Each structure stands twice: as structure tokens, then as C-alpha cells.
Amino acid sequence: MWKFSGNIGYSCEECESSGVIPVEDFEIDCVGGDERQMGPELCYELAYEFSCPDCDNEISLKFYVYEYPANCLNFIDNQSAGAETSGEPDFEYLPELYSAEDILHLYSSIKELVLTLRENPYLLRDISHREFEEVVAELFRAKGYQVDLTKRTRDGGKDIIAIHTDHFGIKSKYFIECKHYAESNKIGVDVVRTLHGVKNTKDGPNKTIVATTSTFTEDARKFVDSEISSKWDMSLADHDEIVRWLQSYR
Length: 250
Hints:
globular; 5 helices; five-stranded mixed sheet; alpha+beta; four-stranded antiparallel sheet; single chain
């Protein structure tokens, strides 16, 4: 058993702005394969498209990864455009014996997954990015929010739209951006600044939230504490805060 892992560095061809995108944030699809002597050769398309945060240049990070024979990485074809890249997708092999982590593959509903994570919070970093979005959505739903988990897009800013209605019938809208990152991959100020930028768009939210399995850089926290117009506009929820949310789940 394996899963895709690694980080892809990029440098914009227009302005040389650079950054790093975790492979787990890519859209991953099996796009076919051919039968060969030792079984099928499967081809996976890994894609992440976005606009450069500094110059709006369109960047397409795209790789075709071939698995042959089964469970072996055979070949990688880099078809990225708009930026120079460094690093490639890799296979991370998973243990074959049953362990506590195997619980994550046996749940039958998101509610069961949230309950599993509440009792085993160390598993939080082992779920997929989409599962993390679903877990955060369920945590808000359980608190009485009307929740819309959006389709996977690359525009940023609203993985989850949560609507809260108070006792007077007054509604508040929240945009929640989820980042399922490794502990060492801190959320930088660019992510925070970009999310804050959607607040003043048409039909924008009353509040924005960044939820992550990692934590935030000093510059990201400084931006929220000192540079935005009001401390009520944005909240940063790091790994420890997500664990506290899980502990309060009922």
C-alpha cells in the first residue's frame, strides 16, 4: 500500500515569486493504463493550478506518474507550465499490518471519523486533505452551523462556507480555508493575506478562518494581530486548536 507524498517547489516564470505546494494538495486522478507483462501500468495525473500571488501569472503544476508493476513508481513526466519546478511526487509506503492508523480506512461516516479522531488525535495528520475538510465541516455542523463543503477548486479562500444564525435570526457567514500540512510546514503570511482578501468581495463573509494541522509563521500571526482592520475579521486555528475542537464534539 502507498500514497502520494512530497513537496513541489515553484518559481514563477514572470516575476520569479516562489513557493512550495504539498503533493497532498494536488488534484489526483487515475487517467488510464496499459496491460504489460507484469500486470497493468497505471497512469495518474497530479494537477494544481493557481495564479501567482504577486503577478497573477497563470501557473499549472502538472505531473503524470506511472505505477508499474503494482506499488512501484516507474516514471514521472513533468508537464508543468508557467513556472520552474523543483521536486517530484513520490510514493510513501504504508504499513501492511493492521495498526491504530488502519481505523481511518474503516469508518463508515464522517461522524465516526470525527469520533475516532477525538479519541486518537495523533491520527489527525494521517487523514487526507479532503477528509480534513470534511472533519472541520462536521465540527461546525455539530455546533449548529449551516455548512456547505465546496467542490475542490484552486482559487483559495472557501473550502467551507458556514452560516450561523443567532437567536434573533441574524445570519453571519464564515469562509474557512483548510490546510492539511505536515507539522514542519507552517502556514505563511501569503495564505493568510489571500484569504483575508476575499472578505471584501461581493457576497463575502463576515469572518474568515484558516484551519490547519500545522501551525503559523510569526509573520502570519503578526498580519492578523496587527495589520488587518479588526481582530474580529480573521481567526487562525492551528493543530492544537483543532484538537480542542475535536474534544468538544458531541
